[in-house]
Records
---
Amino acid sequence: MLTVRALALAYGAITAVRGIDLDVGSGELVAVIGANGAGKTTTLKGIAGAMPVRHGEIVFDGEDIARLPVHERVRRGVCLVPEGRGIFARLTVAENLDMGAYLRRDAHGVRADLARCYGLFPRLAERRGQAAGTLSGGEQQMLAIGRALMSRPRLLLLDEPHARLAPIVSRLIFDTIRTVANEQVSILLIEQNARAALELATRAYVMESGRIALSGAASALLASDAVRCAYLGE
Ligand SMILES: Nc1ncnc2c1ncn2[C@@H]1O[C@H](COP(=O)(O)OP(=O)(O)OP(=O)(O)O)[C@@H](O)[C@H]1O
Ligand SMILES: [Mg+2]
């Protein structure tokens, strides 16, 4: 479904991603792990359209989307949940969720997805009239994921959904990611917690200094000495 080839991304003169190849199959959950500054967030931004592509291809369902603006990628089903969540603090929970569906014209489907979202996160249903900026960190993460789901994504790009969350909330987010993946949404997940990522994903890529250093089945990476030593602290 997603085929990235020779993707290069830069901030001015600083090259952050140096020609990477990466694939996500239909309904697959793929993780990207790597040290701070390796280029993980930049990679997701490039795929989502949040920054211009310097070089390479991003083929989604047979079409190169590398030069399309963000909304055209969202329309095709590519949706980013950014690091730091990017919710609208002054809008209510319900208004934020509506924003997620802004490109959709199927009012019926939107209503059904809203009910489903509140089903996934009952906490959001209770707080639907509350300003998003006053939610707890974990609730804001739920809202960010809920808002992305309101766009009916076919490929969800998740940048560290567990950052700064208490274990119990973190588990809820993990369960939700699993539920969403089971509904045939493909997921590309960045995680600082390499072990958690490798336990959740079927395949993974390890990034180092803007390149893919290793890739393979998550179970194989979990068992690899290089990964255990460098990323699992063993
Ligand atoms: N807005 C920016 N301007 C200039 N350089 C940037 C910018 N954002 C990121 N970089 C640089 O690009 C490189 C990759 O950053 P990126 O945020 O993709 O890393 P990351 O793998 O997501 O790291 P982390 O695990 O800390 O989130 C880093 O060297 C970083 O300093
Ligand atoms: Mg990052």
Note: The chain has ten helices and ten strands.
---
Amino acid sequence: MPGKDVDLAVIGAGLSGCALVAALRRRDWQGTIQILEAGRGPGGRCATRRRRDDPLWRLDHGSPTLSFHAAPRGQLLELMTSLQQRGVVRVDDDPVVGLDHLGTAVEAPEHPLLQGPRWRGVPNMASVAEILLSDGAEGVDVGFGERIQSLSKVDGCWLLTGGVHAAKLILSGTLLAHPRSLAMLGWRDVPLRQAVPEGHDPVLDAALEWIAELNASIRWNLMLEFPAAEHDRLPRQIWLTPRAQSHFGVERMVIQVQQCNRIGLVIHGLDDGVPITPETQPELLKAQEQRLLSVLPELLRPWPALQRMVPDARSLGVMRWGAAQPLEQGMPTTLQWCPQANVGFCGDWIAGHGFGMAEGALQSALDLAESIDS
Ligand SMILES: Cc1cc2nc3c(=O)[nH]c(=O)nc-3n(C[C@H](O)[C@H](O)[C@H](O)COP(=O)(O)OP(=O)(O)OC[C@H]3O[C@@H](n4cnc5c(N)ncnc54)[C@H](O)[C@@H]3O)c2cc1C
């Protein structure tokens, strides 16, 4: 990417980064924007996996839905209504069932992600981030496959990989601001702290202190393809009861019927706490794949037609998801934008409720757009 100056750089094209850009443009904010995203496309944890060998295949391999703890209000309601009217989301009333530790289908357990209203991306989850990004497209450049490893400031401007100079910077994930990056990536210091010394911006100092309290949560999601078959109406989500989750090490399974009646299934495997480093990750991915495959027949007991097909199911590999888990109390909105350092934050980790959900990602983007634009 050639060197260039922009008014705003956004690290991350997940739901919050894309919603931020769309919200700024809706407010008629005219500045130039550069988005830098490590992945191959927009969506982050609300992305959809495609396959080179199979152009029709689409699998929501992270979040299968957009959950809200309560009915959205204000600007968030406006956003969801507009997305629904444009056919980008629909109310998610697909069946959700529970599974107990004996492998018996039961009522779905109570969970923050299931308690309020939900919407699904149409045709799939990635569509939501894609449309938000295209809404904000004018004056926006997006660099995919750009993983930012360090941050620095030169003459008051943010200097990013590829020679991008930005007056303002937004982080939509916590990696560059959280001490966990030190162990995982072997960095010497938190990149954002390295770029802005303590005492320069009291708001940033308070924000970094708040961020350091967050814990990371890991998921090992095994993606599977089942052959085409006639099947009765399958549930979209199968949530394990708390006892079943600790017995099987699995949070839930998500089913997505594909073109030609093939079935995509994602097993959301829980973290077992083994430390992850760049050296251990390849072996851990293999071990998690074997572990999740070994419990699959038991997990599918209530769906015998699917269970019979397990020997013919094809593993499409394991995706490791990692992100900061929100606290019960959200980050005060006054810490979302740090005016001296010209850096701000969006992302689901900013909201409270103790659980990362799409609602928090979208709300944080709307709040931040207001701060930047004021
Ligand atoms: C397995 C799973 C299941 C889930 N289920 C649900 C559910 O049922 N309901 C619900 O509402 N929510 C669910 N969620 C949570 C939901 O996916 C998130 O709340 C939402 O996607 C967060 O969006 P975000 O933009 O805040 O973060 P992200 O989607 O994580 O976006 C951050 C983006 O920044 C990029 N990035 C980070 N660091 C860098 C860097 N240094 N350089 C370049 N790019 C970088 C990342 O690649 C990513 O694309 C689930 C999440 C997972 C993983």
Note: The pocket of flavin-adenine dinucleotide is lined by residues 11-17, 36-39, 44-46, 62-67, 113, 146-148, 172-173, 175-176, 219, 221, 268, 321, 323, 347-348, 356-358, 361 (CB under 6 Å).
